[in-house]
Design brief:
alpha/beta, Molybdopterin biosynthesis moea protein, domain 2, Molybdopterin biosynthesis moeA protein, domain 3, 4 domains, 6-stranded mixed β-sheet, 30% strand, Molybdopterin molybdenumtransferase, molybdenum
């Protein structure tokens, strides 16, 4: 059985070919800015950050215990040292450790210069000023060296990297207050269609609420993007062209939903051809075949389908990698796993399919996936229930329960 929707006068191009064309057609945007560290989460680093200090800055204890010098140990015998004082985190021991002495020390506190070892507090017995150490006490343990993590002048973080919470912690640990980041990618998005109704208004016959813009806003939630929601544009050829041209002058990317198919009121491709250029239109995936990519002047244009699941699929599989490339950050390869499919799946040969699935893992670490329900591109509820795509190749003609399939998790948490 062949997918009737894949039968065209000209064979549909594969998603891999489409991604290659996009990669060849775009280049990262220019421009940087300096931001404070507390504003840098999610931004893309534009210059490498070199550490101004050693991390750790001082030798310090890896645990609570007692700091001592290995010279005080004789032939692995038990021994007793005199307590000379305390080294607190933030308040180092101020004196000089003499032979036969030790210092009570806490995690992160500076190890006295004359000491080279720290023993866990549970391994000794303290009796007033006398501290009794067991036989065969291990030496040169539990002391963090200066620069053990990062040497002064070494690269803390290289560009281009989208800064995470952990990155901010690393930068802060070196005393870095500001970073140079790439400017935000300016993205405008809107929906097209006379049938769309704004939230808060009653539905009239034949109308539907605009779910696509709400979903796109969430999919585009990224600190490296500057977003503008341009609302809904009616199915009017001239209005669309005027909107495209105006937006192309102010934004790096335009993303539309709806109007990219072949209906009499589907003007997106025709309008893009008139005021810009169409790099490609239609790709061999399901859902999401009527996807347009092109350019209006220096602005990249993505015309996504109107059905909401097709919007999600085409954004995640095609648009998201392109936006990362435009932002100047490395594209990521989606994690894919092999799982045993517990549902029979219908499919016709001809297009690569991204079916919605529910992925689970048993106590032995084996993955199983079941269909999330109806797979129509308008069925958003099954998309909401799913936590992965079941990726079926173009030549697949369906799956029997018990077959192994490729899955693409939405996140690393199941």
């Amino acid at each position: 059985m062949i997918d009737a929707c894949s039968q065209e006068f000209k064979p549909l191009q594969s998603i891999d070919d489409a991604l290659d064309k996009i990669k060849a057609a775009i280049k990262p945007v220019d421009g940087t800015e300096k931001v404070m560290l507390n504003e840098a989460l999610g931004r893309i680093l534009a210059e490498p950050v070199l550490s101004p200090i050693n991390i750790p800055h001082d030798r310090n204890a890896a645990m609570d215990g007692y700091a001592f010098a290995s010279r005080d140990i004789i032939d692995g015998q038990a021994f007793t040292l005199t307590l000379a004082g305390v080294s607190w985190a933030g308040r180092p021991f101020a004196g000089r450790l003499q032979p036969g002495q030790c210092v009570r020390i806490f995690t992160g506190a500076v190890v006295p210069e004359q000491a080279d070892s720290v023993i866990m507090q549970e391994h000794v017995q303290a009796d007033g000023q006398a501290v009794h150490f067991p036989a065969n006490t291990q030496v040169r343990q539990n002391v963090r060296k200066i620069g053990e993590d990062v040497k002064q002048g070494a690269c803390l973080i290289a560009e281009p990297k989208q800064l995470t919470a952990v990155d901010l912690g690393l930068l802060a640990s070196a005393g870095v207050e500001q970073v140079i980041v790439k400017r935000r990618l300016k993205i405008a998005y809107f929906s097209t269609g006379d049938e769309l109704t704004a939230l808060g208004k009653p539905l009239e016959p034949g109308k539907i609420y605009d779910s696509n813009r709400a979903m796109l806003g969430g999919l585009l939630a990224d600190q490296s993007y500057s977003l503008t929601d341009l609302g809904v544009i009616a199915d009017n050829r001239q209005l669309l062209e005027d909107s495209f041209i105006k937006a192309s002058k102010d934004y790096d990317v335009i993303i539309t939903t709806g109007g990219a198919s072949v209906g009499e009121a589907d003007y997106v491709k025709e309008t893009l051809q008139s005021c810009g250029e169409v790099n490609f239109w239609k790709i061999a995936i399901k859902p999401g075949k009527p996807l347009a990519f092109g350019r209006i002047g220096q602005c990249c244009f993505f015309g996504l389908p109107g059905n909401p699941v097709a919007v999600a699929v085409t954004f995640q599989q095609v648009v998201a990698p392109a936006l990362r490339q435009l932002s100047g950050v490395a594209c990521l390869t989606a994690l894919r796993l092999t799982a045993i499919c517990t549902s029979a799946l219908k499919k016709s040969a001809g297009r690569k399919e991204y079916q919605r699935g529910i992925l689970s893992q048993d106590k032995n670490g084996e993955f199983f996936v079941a269909s999330a329900g109806q797979q129509g591109s308008h069925i958003l509820s099954s998309m909401s229930r799913s936590n992965c795509y079941i990726v079926l190749p173009e030549e697949s003609k369906g799956v029997q329960a018990g077959d192994k399939v490729t899955v693409e998790p939405f996140s690393l948490l199941l």
